[in-house]
Amino acid sequence: MKTTTKLFSFLALAALLLAANVPAFGAANIVIVNGDGPNEGFNDPTPAAPVGGNPGTTVGQQRLIAFQFAASVWGSILDSAVPIYVQASFDPLTCTATGATLGSAGAIQIFSNFPGREYDNTWYHVALANKLAGADLAPGPNGTVNDDIVARFNANLGQPNCLTGSGFYYGLDANHGTLIDLVTVLLHEFGHGLGFANFVTEANGTQPLDLTDIFSIYTLDTTTGKHWSEMTSNAERAASAINSNKVVWDGINVTTAAPSVLQLGTPLLTVNAPAGLGPFRIGTASFGPVIASPGTTGDVVQALDAADVAGPSTFDGCSAITNAAAVAGKIAMVDRGTCGFAIKAKNVQNAGAIAMIVADNAPGSPPGGMTGVDPTITIPSARVTLGDGNTLKAALASGTVNVTLGVNLAVRAGADPQGRVLLNAPSPVVPGSSISHWDPVAFPNLLMEPSINSDLGHGVDLTRQEMIDIGWFSDGDGVPDGRDQCIGSSTSATVVVGGCNSGVPNTTFATGCRITDQINDCAVGASNHGGFVSCVAHLTNNLKKGGIISDSQKGAIQSCAGGASIP
Amino acid sequence: MMKMQKRVVRMGALGLAATFALGIATAPAFARGRAAKVPGNGLQVAIDPATGKIRQPTAAESRALSAQVATKAATAGPQFTHWADGTISAVLTEDYLNVWLVQLNANGSASQVCVDGANATQSAAPAGEDK
Hints:
The complex is a heterodimer.
Chain A: H1 2-19, E1 30-34, H2 59-75, E2 84-91, E3 99-101, E4 103-107, E5 109-112, E6 122-125, H3 126-133, E7 149-154, E8 168-169, E9 180-181, H4 182-194, E10 212-213, H5 214-217, E11 219-221, E12 226-227, H6 234-240, E13 247-249, H7 252-261, E14 264-273, E15 280-281, E16 283-284, E17 296-302, H8 324-327, E18 331-335, H9 341-350, E19 355-359, E20 381-384, H10 386-398, E21 402-412, E22 421-422, H11 461-470, E23 494-497, E24 500-505, H12 515-525, H13 529-545, H14 551-563
Parallel strand pairs in A: 1-2, 2-7, 6-10, 8-9, 17-18, 18-19, 19-20
Antiparallel strand pairs in A: 4-7, 5-6, 11-12, 11-13, 13-22, 14-15, 14-21, 16-20, 17-21, 23-24
Chain B: H1 4-14, E1 44-47, E2 54-55, H2 59-67, E3 79-82, E4 88-91, E5 98-104, E6 110-116
C-alpha cells in the first residue's frame, strides 16, 4: 500500500522531528512594504554594481533585495498562514560626518487575550498573535500602524557628512569587511519584531497595562525561582534585570537545543583557597593567550608601582612594578584605570607574573572585555568586577589566595550550570539591551546578543528555538509550546494508526504529548512490524493500567496497529 | 497589498463593540495613509576622526546627534483598545523600538549594541574598553 507507506514515512519523519523538538513544517510569508517615494530609499536609481550575491543594479534594488533576503530567512523557518508586513523605508535620518542615526525596527502593535493564544493576560507581538489567531488582528492599509513590523534605515549613510567612508553592505554573503552588514542587522531586528523581546521597562520593571508578555513567561530568575511573569511587583523585575548570570530562558526548545549550539567551557576565576570564595565571572582580553583549560593556577599578589604621571595609584600597574620579587611566578592583581589594559599586562609580565587579574574601578557586572594590542604579551589576563576584586583583596589581607584562571568545562559558554541559556542582565541596567538579548558570554556568538559580532553568518541559531517556545509552531493541544515535549502532535481527536481509526480518544498528557505521539515513537523505534506491534501492545497495556484507556480501547488500538503496514 | 477588505471582516466579527482607551483619551487610530507611519528612533554610529573607522558615539556625540533631530514623535505611552471579544491591543510608541549603537574598538573591530528607543541617546554601550 503506497498510501500506508507514505503515511508511515510521514509519521516516522514527524516522530523523528518531534524527538528533536524542531518542527520542520510550515512557512510564513513576510512582505516588505516599500514605504519610499520615487527616487528615494528602495527606489533610489543610483547605479550600483552587483555585490556579494545581490544582483541589484541600483542602490534601491540592492536595499530591497537585502530586505527581502532577510525576510525570506525568517519566513522559511516560521509558520503562519497570515502574511507578516514589514513597513520598511530608507530615509535621510539625522547624521553628521562623525555620527549618524542608522535605523530602527520593532513590532508596531501588541495583542493580549485574542482567540488562539496560549496564555491569558499576556502581550504578544502582533505577527505572532496573528499566527495564533489564524487571522490578521490589525487589518487595514499598508503603510500604517496596521503593518506588523516597522524598519527604518538611514539612506545617506556613507555619503559626505554622514559617516563618510562607511555605509551598509548590501551583499547577501556576509562578506561585509569594515562595512555594516545590513542583512545581519535586519535578521536581528526582525527577530525582535517577531518575538525576541519583552515589553517591560527594565529600569523600573513596569509593564503595559501591568500585563506580562510572552517573552517574560520564559524569563526565569534563578535566584528567586520566579519567572518574570510570576513577579508581583515592578521592583522585583527591576532587581532581576541586573541579576547578572542568574536570569535564564527556560523554554524547553531552547534548552534542548543549547548543547548542539553552545560550546562547552565558560571562562571563570576559581578560588582554590581560601574556601568559600568564588567562582567569579571574568572578562577576557583581546591580547595575550586565550584562557583555556586547565588554565593558570597560582597565588595572587597585588602588584605595586609608583604613583606617577603614568598612573596616580600604586595599584594601577601603569608603571614598572616595584615589588617584582613578590610578583614573580605569581598571578598579579592590579586595579583598572588611567592606562590601557595591555600596558598593565606588559608591566606585570616584565615583573615575572604568570597571569594578570584586573579589578574593576567602578561598580557594574558582568565584567567587560579588555581590548588592546600588544603581541609581546604572553600571559593570560582576566577582569573581575569591583565587588569581586574587593573580595579578593580582603582575602589577601588575611592570608594566601590561590586561584585558577581557566574555563569550566562542565558549563556551556552562555548557559547556566543547569544548561539553561543566559539572558543579558548587566548592572547597571541597559534598557532594551538588558533581558531582551542573550548574554554576550555565549559562544559561538549568537544572533540575538546585544552586539552584532563580526563572525556571524546569516543564520538564526537558538533564536528559532525561542520562536518555537513562544508559540510560532503551536499545535493547539492546550500545552504551551515552551513547555510542550511534543510540539506538532496530531490534532486528531481519536487515535489513528496507519489510517485505521481506533475511535479511542487521543488523550493529551501534561507533557504536551498525545497517545499518537507515543505510537509514533514505537514506529520510529521498531525494526520490523512485529517490533512495532509489540511496542504498541506494551504501550497500551501501560495506558490501561494507568486508567487512561479501557480494555476494549486497548484492543482497538492494538488491532489497528496489527493491521497497519508499519514499518 | 491593501488589507481593507480583511479589516471589514474583522470589525464585523467584533461587532464594532465599544472601544476605549486607557491612559489616553482616544481609541487606537488605525490610521489611514502614509502619514500615520510609525516613527522610529535609530541606530547611531560615529566615525573616529583619528582612525576614520566606525565606532559607537561618545555620550557627548550622541547627545549632539539627538539634539539635531528636528521632530520627535510624542512618547506618551502605548494606546490601548479593548475589543468586544476580550482582545486587548496597543499601538507601541518609539520607546519600544530597537536601536543600534556601533563602536569601533581600539583593535579596529566594530562593536554594535542594541538598546531601546527610549534610551538610545543616553546609553553607553559597555563594549570595547581598552583601559
